[in-house]
Amino acid sequence: ADTVKIGVYEPASGDNGAGGKQETLGIQYANSETPTVEIDGKEYNVELDIVDNESSTDKGPSAASTLVSDGVSIVLGSYGSGVSIAASDIFKDGGVPALGITCTNPQVTQGNTHYFRICFLDPFQGTVLANFAKDKFEAKKAYVLTKLGDDYSAGLGHYFTKAFEDLGGEVVEETFPDGNSDFTSYITSAKNAGADVFFAPTSTEAAALIIEQAAAQGLDLPLLAGDTWDSNVILKAAEGKDVQVYVTTFYQEGGNEDFDNGMKEFINSDSKNLANNGGDDTIAAVSAMGYDAYYVALEALKAAGSTDPAKVNEALWDVTYEGVCGKVQFDSENGDAQRDTAYVKTANTETGAWDFVGEQGVE
Amino acid sequence: MEWFNQNLPYFLAGISVGGQYALIAIGYTMVYGILRLINFAHGDIFMVAGLIMVYLSASLPIYISIPIMIVATVIIGFLIERVAYKPLRQAPRMSIMISAIGVSYLLQNLALYITGGLAQQYPAIPWISDTIEIFGSVTKRVTVITPILTIVLVFALVFLIKKTKIGMAMRAASKDFETSQLMGIKINSVISMTFIIGSFLAAVASLLYFSNYTGVVPTSGAMPGLKAFVAAVFGGIGSIPGAVIGAFIIGICENIIKGMGMTTFSDAFTFALLIVILIAKPTGLFGEKVTDKV
Amino acid sequence: MSNVLEVKGLCVSYGGIQAVKDISFVVPKGEVVTLIGANGAGKSSTLRSIVGLVKPTLGSVLLNGKEIAGKTPESIVSQGITLVPEGRRVFADLTVLENLKVGAYLRKDSLDEDIRWCYDLFPRLKERSWQLAGTLSGGEQQMLAIARALMSRPDVIMMDEPSLGLAPIVVRGVFDIIREINRQGKTILLVEQNANMALNAAHHGYVMETGRITLSGTGKELSENDSVKAAYLGKARK
Amino acid sequence: MTKKKETIINVALIAGLLVILYIMEQLMNPTDMIFTVLKKGAIYALVAVSMNLLNGFTGLFSLGQAGFMLLGAYTYGILTIPSEQRESVYQYFDGGIVQFAVPVAIGILAAGVVAAIFAYLIGLPVLRLKSDYLAIATLGFAEIIRAVFQWDKLGPLTNGSNLLRSYPTFKSVLFPFIVSGICIAVIVMMINSTYGRAFKAIRDDEIAAEAMGINLAHHKRIAFTVSSFFAGISGALLAMYQTTIQASMFKSAMTYEILLIVVIGGIGSVTGSCISSFLFITCSEWILRFLDNDTYIGDFHVPLLRSGFRKVVFSIIIMIIVLFFRQGIMGTKEFSVAGIRNFFVRKSNKEKGRKLQ
Amino acid sequence: MSEHVLKVENATMQFGGVVAVDNMNIVVDKGEIVSLIGPNGAGKTTAFNVITGVYAPTNGAVYFNGKKIIENHPQGKMKKLYQGQNAGKYTHVLAPTPDKITQLGIARTFQNIRLFKSQTVFENILIAKHLRRTSNLFTATFHLNGKEEQKMREDATHLLEIVGLKDERNEMATSLPYGKQRRLEIARALATNPSLLLLDEPAAGMNPQETDELTAFIGEIRDNFGLTIFMIEHHMDLVMEISDRIYVLDFGKPIAEGVPEEIQNNQRVIDAYLGGAADE
Ligand SMILES: Nc1ncnc2c1ncn2[C@@H]1O[C@H](COP(=O)(O)OP(=O)(O)OP(=O)(O)O)[C@@H](O)[C@H]1O
Ligand SMILES: Nc1ncnc2c1ncn2[C@@H]1O[C@H](COP(=O)(O)OP(=O)(O)OP(=O)(O)O)[C@@H](O)[C@H]1O
Ligand SMILES: [Mg+2]
Ligand SMILES: [Mg+2]
Q1: Which ligand is nearest to the CA of C37?
Q2: Closest-CA residue of chain B to A237
Q3: Could you tell me the domains of chain E?
Q4: Pick from C144, C137, C138: nearest CA to C119
Q5: Which residue from D29, D160, D249 is facing A58, i.e. has the nearest CB?
Q6: What ipTM was predicted for this assembly?
Q7: What pLDDT score does B289 carry?
């Protein structure tokens, strides 16, 4: 049979390597579940073309070029907004549509016709988190720590700040530079500032350090974060420590039994998958999103009736799909999925698993 | 008192991180002193030491892992010198430095390959990882141990270099290999010795550092390495007390800057301070003046 | 009579250039032997290859009957031979005293006596005991280099142009010292541009030209040889 | 061969190269990876040559290249983003303070000029430093510049730590080739002028150079400023190539990469730097990529191959080059028609000689 | 006063506690060959370094063709250390860098040869022509200075012929034998069009035969280039043969000055420097 190529533009190394790998796992699982697609009456084998964008806006474009040059019909990814924005023009020039999975920064899809996405956006997520901080903790003052030069981090921090201030709260903002692993000063500053919540939309790597050091310094504020923190890295870091961690996310394990079981089996079937998932079979929300994204791509291919990227791009606008993380339907302006709720979870430091807190929307 | 309580943690963090920088910086300074080589791979040796510990402690008890980790790190440092620097003894300085950059790349990429790029959780070392309270600030015990251990090690080293025969051989070799050989000094052993000491200190530093900042990633060595290197230059490269003082100054300033809320500039400030010092004193605080006799 | 040093068929080349081409000579015990020749004749290369700083491409070097060619400088030096290198090469960042101590690196006994002896030979060094060697004047550095070599108590001392850049009075002093240490039983292999004095001080001499030995004889014979006079002794002796 | 003749041949060769590139672009798929590599290679060639001018020809060990590229890239980006795009690019800063856009050519030139001005100012204090101290000071400046450009307060100008994008870029591979080509030609001409000789004298022996009446401070500053000018231009080109820029990508690792290129090509060889940048980019970004993928030959799972292996292999290649080809690809020699001719003539002479014997 | 090409006035140079040059006064007149001799470490090279701007003197002044080119006064810590009798005489600081001195017409060679290692013999000389250029960075880069470049090359070629290195033109400077390297250093200094040439031990490392050749050579260039030569040397044959006058330095101070015969028979000089019987 003929093959159709789907590009996977994800980080396997760098700051976002851990998250990128989990997202890729979801895609791979979906691919193993449904390895073929029927396009225009013909059966095609779906081949995943996976490249590593190294979490870097500098190396990303070359990786993107590789995909375009390889002749993929559609690209999935990336985890991390900065790399997605950086590759946007490469995909545009190559005429290849791209489907963002968990890149939540608005700029990814803004003003271009080839980048779509299936997740909610940071203005939404930031507001959700601000509301949550207000509702749950009656927070008046928030300490916001973002990473310098990270679009995801800066974006989410920005929208959170805006929303929180609109709600009448006060915000202390700080940034940490690349390569920083000493967070004790930031934690001290948060304490000294008298903040009620500590909001840190960062990569999981920084997150683990923050949790560890917050615990060591006896910080008794709730730690809040966005979707990136929904990872077993966080669970492990928090396990057995005296910390409270809350995250907003796309998916809650248990949301879809079939998917959960299949995914776990897939992870456990291969030691490499297990390692890529961080050593256990906790399902990350990004994996679920990756899974959905793969099926959205298949829908688009079917709708286009062709493997021609231009046609796929055209078809994407009208694709709808009911996935494990909810319904995907793109708005006609930017190609963003329309979503209005996020899940909130908290890390259970005893069991080392996520506890469901609730769904939170925006009033 | 309020002020004191609020700012003590910054100082504690500064002193502790300064001590760790100091241990790494000595490695730079010693190698530079003898080979005139900025050993870019030094920070990565530090990172590798961290990874070794992670993997060892997964299957062995801590008290066995620690000595094995130190020995393994020392062997790696030794081998790197033999394989990547020794063949270039006669080559221009730039080549050795590039070789060092190459080794640094290789170590990072190997670490990336082996760990799959995922952060590895450093094991908690009993006693030194415990949380203690100092004047009301909560911190890990390692914070206090670091500066003390650093100072002890430094005194030992200074004695070694100033007062012992091998120390004199090191200083002689640092200026002129050929003539040192004529004096019967075994250049290769002296250089190996330097790398062994440097790697040993890097291993100790990694133990202290990662007990505090527990995630080990392939690039973990880059920033502490760079800072330590700056510290070495700051104090006058080649001078061990200089490196140590430089490291403490940088560690403390960095945390004060963060405490002041100028976090964007915490790294930049380190460099700015360095440049100011260099402009005032082109060979660092305690640097030997180059005697360029015409 | 025993030869302390025997060089047979020695060849040295740098890359493509052959600097020393199959030379043989002997240094008898207790004698002063000199090598003279124009710039670039290969004198320094000969000395450097004997002591192992460059590896000879061919040939053998026997020190007290033992083969040393191809060994490392450290091991050669430890067998009782040393070289005062061309251009002084003192350790610039060590003090004068430390330089002397490094000179005795291989020794384990007390150095006080030897240091005193060196200071007697070169009083100037005593004054400068704590100065960094790099800031000494050229001549002072030369003295230090000789003294440093003496510190290892070698049987054979090779000197590469020890009089280079020295004041006349010191040159004479250096030659006096050469004679003096020779009298004390040391064997000396001397390379000199100052052919007059070298031949005067030497028991034996060899003349090198473009990598080969072209003439040999006792010091006296050579200094009276017409071609040597014409080529190396200059107007004063013509 | 006379000098004139050689110049003509060189010009002809370059023209030929451009024509070939043009034809390739017409015949092949323009998104082919080879063009990506060629574009980036051309840009890196320029920055490598500019670094070589400092480190190789003037003996100034500077590690500030990434900083000057950053200046160039930002200058270009800030000046050329079309006004109507600014609102979305500077979304956190109300559209930023620059509200006009200049033509591409002026943007590129400004990139060089801004980098040069900064270099001049930085050079005043730091060029007094020697070797490694200079290296670390320039490295430090690059890091400071990077931090300043990420600073929130400068956001209206620099967009803080966020991406700059939507400025004009190039499509054809000819563009970076022509711009880099012109710049490199200028650098080569300078190296061959009396100033170039002065630079080399400074590299060989500062004290002697000064005794020959060469004003060290002045000449070092010239070399530093000129080198940074071209680094700035290459920064602008890189910005165009990447379509987005962000201060965080101009890290010291980038400088080390360029330094590696320079050394692999041969310190003091312009053609060496050019050749090695293309090789370097090809290896690091293209042909080794297959090493990152799990590969099955039939049912056989090729061992070792998985994500990250490419970089391991690449660093081993670098180590091999560094250890076994110490002079780099070209040493201090230049690739030239005359050189090749001489090489063959000498070879055949040798053969003749052998026959005669 | 203006008849002296070079005048060193009360120059003192201290390094920490070491007084390398101590209140030195020297004059050199036009067309002379003057030698500076003295024991090792007497401060001869240091004196050269002061004259050529490598070191700023602790105290004193240097005049070139009657114009003050260097002046300094004891300052700060030095003032306390400095014991000289003219401590207060100089009030300004005038400390040009070596290139400015060369620009004025004083060229030098070095005790330890300092050629440009990676350059050919010809390029070594060409570099020294750089300081007399009239082109700027722009015109030089775009080769708009063809005539000047041509002239530089002709001059350099001419110099090579004069010093007898024509055949070695394209060899690497460091591959030359020692004696020729010394000649090349002199040729390079000449290429800066000096009127005063300072030679620091030009005959070091040469055998007597080569020294004789050098003696003749120095005389020739003095005549051909209308030079004034100030020279440090330890080879007495050379010094006595070509010097018009000789200064003898000891512990940084001139202890004698005069024509060769006077110096040769001066008991202080014999004791401090020449030693015993002057022949041997
Ligand atoms: N490291 C080297 N690399 C290449 N060639 C060299 C090297 N050292 C010496 N030579 C060459 O070998 C030859 C002999 O040099 P050598 O130094 O032995 O001569 P020499 O007799 O000691 O001369 P001098 O009196 O000048 O010291 C010369 O042609 C020299 O150029
Ligand atoms: N840069 C310096 N720092 C400290 N001391 C110095 C420096 N330069 C020279 N000296 C000292 O000054 C004194 C004079 O040195 P100088 O080189 O002028 O001697 P010289 O007369 O040229 O001797 P020689 O004939 O041996 O070359 C020496 O004692 C030397 O140690
Ligand atoms: Mg010699
Ligand atoms: Mg001198």
Answers
A1: 1
A2: B121
A3: 1-105+196-280 (3.40.50.300), 108-193 (3.40.50.300)
A4: C144
A5: D249
A6: 0.87
A7: 63
